[in-house]
């Protein structure tokens, strides 16, 4: 028996194992990279939501100075803001943000009834900051959802799905809620 005849199949087997191992490592790294990008995208949304949450008390205080008798609206906005800040998942955030957007629309409707408030430079600045923040939230949401779509597709397609299932990679939820959260509050002067 020749040593070459024994070692050739062994060399081929080792080569195949190295190729399969490299391929599995590549798939694993691709899934980790995708998961981290999705987390980064969600973090971008949270930054913009925090900015929005920080603007809301200032807007409430500006409106309160002119419309002290609108306690119901102020309470709704405050409650909706607190609920949105406590949301943990994209789905619960979307529902809470829809409620917050509705209450902000009510607050802006109250502001419309006070011409002196609408003319107030500080209030106008706060409104423009809110609209800018809403635009940034929408852009962050689109970015996050595109990352989720790419990652979820990788987790679902063959043969990556075999590795993903074996290693416990789960799909992410899209951050998509009712239509009213996609439209920033209307500001008119």
Mean pLDDT: 87
Separation of termini? 94 Å
Q: What would CATH call the class?
A: Mainly Alpha
Number of helices: 6
CATH-defined fold name: de novo design (two linked rop proteins)
**What is the C-alpha radius of gyration, as a whole number of Å?**
26 Å
CATH superfamily annotation: LemA-like domain
- Helix content estimate: over 70%
CATH architecture assignment? Up-down Bundle
Overall 3D shape: rod-shaped
Structural notes for this entry:
- There is one protein chain.
- This protein has about 190 residues and is an all-alpha fold.
- The protein has one domain (about 25-180): LemA-like domain (de novo design (two linked rop proteins), Up-down Bundle), CATH 1.20.1440.
- Helix content is about 80%, strand content about 0%.
- The chain contains six helices and no strands.
- The protein has helices at about 5-65, 70-85, 90-110, 115-120, 120-155, 160-165.
- α1 (about 5-65) packs antiparallel against α2, α1 (about 5-65) packs parallel to α3 and α2 (about 70-85) runs antiparallel to α3 (about 90-110).
- The protein is rod-shaped and about 100 Å long.
- Residues about 180-185 have low confidence and may be disordered.
């Amino acid at each position: 028996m020749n040593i070459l005849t024994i070692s050739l199949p062994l060399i081929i087997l080792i080569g195949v194992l190295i190729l399969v191992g490299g391929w599995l490592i590549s798939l694993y790294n691709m899934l980790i990279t995708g998961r981290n990008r999705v987390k980064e995208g969600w973090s971008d949304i949270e930054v913009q939501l925090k900015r929005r949450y920080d603007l809301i008390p200032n807007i409430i205080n500006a409106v309160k100075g002119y419309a002290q008798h609108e306690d119901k609206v102020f309470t709704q906005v405050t409650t909706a803001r607190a609920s949105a800040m406590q949301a943990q998942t994209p789905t619960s955030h979307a529902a809470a943000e829809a409620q917050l957007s509705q209450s902000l629309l009510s607050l802006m409707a109250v502001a419309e009834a006070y011409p002196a408030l609408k003319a107030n430079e500080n209030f106008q600045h706060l409104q423009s900051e809110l609209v800018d923040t809403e635009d940034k939230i929408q852009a962050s949401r689109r970015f996050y959802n595109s990352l989720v779509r790419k990652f979820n597709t990788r987790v679902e397609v063959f043969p990556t799905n075999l590795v993903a299932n074996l290693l416990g990679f789960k799909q992410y939820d899209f951050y998509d809620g009712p239509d009213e959260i996609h439209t920033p509050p209307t500001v008119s002067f």
